[in-house]
Write a structure and sequence with these properties.
- This protein is of the alpha/beta class.
- It has helices at residues 16-29, 52-55, 58-69, 87-93, 124-133, 136-143, 147-165, 170-173, 177-187; strands at residues 2-6, 33-38, 73-77, 96-98, 102-106, 109-114, 191-194, 201-207, 210-216, 226-230, 233-237.
- The strands form two sheets. The protein has a six-stranded mixed sheet with strand order 4-3-2-1-10-11, with no helix packed on it. Strands 5-6-7-9-8 form a five-stranded mixed sheet, covered by helices on one side.
- Strand 3, helix 4 (87-93) and strand 4 form a beta-alpha-beta unit.
Length: 238
């Protein structure tokens, strides 16, 4: 059976077609996939594991749970939109949360998985905000607010982020190749898989005179991007 990688679904009740595509994909995965890796931003926003109903995402949880119960191993890496997904979500859905980055082995080859936003080192504003929000202090303070307060804060943060993007170049918001190579050296890999940039592609380059590859996943609300691994080969679709 194949292994699949997806990212940046940004599931949101305002885009019901994306949730339907996800449901169909998960239903069709039974018996065809042995593992599924979700590399972040499964949701457009996540305000804590007690906020699923308020966000209208309980149906998505049920989709994941039913597929996991059918035998598919589902792994999740946090994205910058859903870094507050925690143990309660994992228990309810049956998925396993992995650290970012995570090193796995496919065949005999080590492969590095990451959401991808940590690779965008030229976007100083994003990296600064990310560093703050990943602290226990920030998370505790946010989660101690009521669900309504968290919803309001999340909307405000999304508006601010979208406004900020309009002032940044595409190059600034993309990954920094030198940093990519630095990270790959640190983990001893020649293959990396990530999302975040919404630019599906296979980048081939030399890492210290050895051929290397970086697979980039696209989003789902326009591209329905999936990377498959089967019999030693990768296939990027969508």
């Amino acid at each position: 059976m194949s292994i699949a990688f997806i990212a940046d679904l940004h599931l949101d009740p305002v885009r019901p077609e994306s949730t339907q595509w996800f449901k169909e994909f998960m239903n069709n995965s039974t018996g065809l996939l042995s593992r599924l890796y979700i590399l972040g931003d499964l949701f457009e926003v996540w305000i804590g594991d007690d906020g699923g109903d308020a966000l209208g995402q309980r149906a998505v949880e049920n989709i994941i749970k039913s597929t996991a119960n059918a035998g598919l191993d589902i792994f999740f890496i946090h994205g910058n939109r859903d870094f507050l997904i925690g143990d309660d979500f994992a228990k309810r859905t049956g998925c396993k949360i992995l650290p970012d980055p995570t090193l796995i082995t496919l065949g005999s080859e080590p492969v590095l998985l990451t959401h991808g936003d940590t690779l965008c080192t030229d976007d100083i504003e994003h990296q600064t905000a990310r560093k703050e929000m990943m602290t226990s202090k920030w998370k505790i303070a946010f989660l101690n607010k009521s669900v309504t307060e968290r919803m309001d804060t999340a909307r405000s943060m999304r508006t601010k982020s979208e406004t900020s993007k309009k002032t940044k170049s595409m190059e600034m918001m993309d990954v920094n190749q030198q940093h990519v190579e630095k990270v790959m050296r640190e983990y001893g890999v020649l293959t990396m898989i990530h999302g975040h940039t919404h630019k599906p592609a296979v980048h081939e380059f030399n890492l210290d005179n050895v051929p290397a590859k970086r697979y980039v996943l696209g989003d789902w609300y326009t591209q329905k991007s999936v990377l498959y691994y089967d019999h030693g080969r990768f296939s990027l679709r969508g």
